[in-house]
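Data card: per-record layout.
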Amino acid sequence: VVLVLFTGRPLTLKWEEENVPAILNVWFGGSEAGYAVADVLFGDVNPSGKLSTTFPQNVGQVPLFYNHKNTGRPLPEGKWFQKFRANYLDVSNDPLYPFGFGLSYTNFTYSDISLDKTSFKPGQKLTASITVTNSGNKVGKEVVQLYIRDIVGTSTRPVKELKGFQKIELKPGEAKTVSFDISAEDLKYYNYDLKYVAEPGDFKIFIGGNSRDTKQADFKLL
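The structure for this 222-residue chain is written out next.
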């Protein structure tokens, strides 16, 4: 059984996730959608789409988005619940499907992130590289996503922000190294005085196949 969803918004699919073998979300594909859906269902096309929004576990988590601000009492990483922390009593903080999520008929594995330097000044750039391997048995395409977090700013900053992505195609067993160039322009935001600035400090890089399942590295803007 495959559940095919024609929808224009995120849905709560907890029961379906636990009881249906496969879910294909096709949004509103128009008059030719049937042909495209059939190509995917019969294996003529290997899906490679990624979610442009976040799907919650239940409506109690709404609003839910990946680039939220940190809380005053954040839940420690890897914890499901801890008293007096920012969490729910009956469900984890994690979404059902995070921003950028999407499955394929093959699997991809990511190496650790390699940085050509760990600090740089405005006017310079840093290159972050990662090797992606098709560990399955079908040709597939993967969207490699780059997120960055500004640890401390004069205004509060999101826990991560999408800063770039690249789509690559890999044969079974093939590996490719994907590189992203990061400059001070990528770190700018409008501060409290509405000035578009990149502030010196510590940053985190996240690279992966979605906003949740990522590899991490640290760098500093001088």
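Known properties of this structure: Helices lie at 14-19, 33-41. The chain has a mean pLDDT of 94.

See the next section for split statistics.
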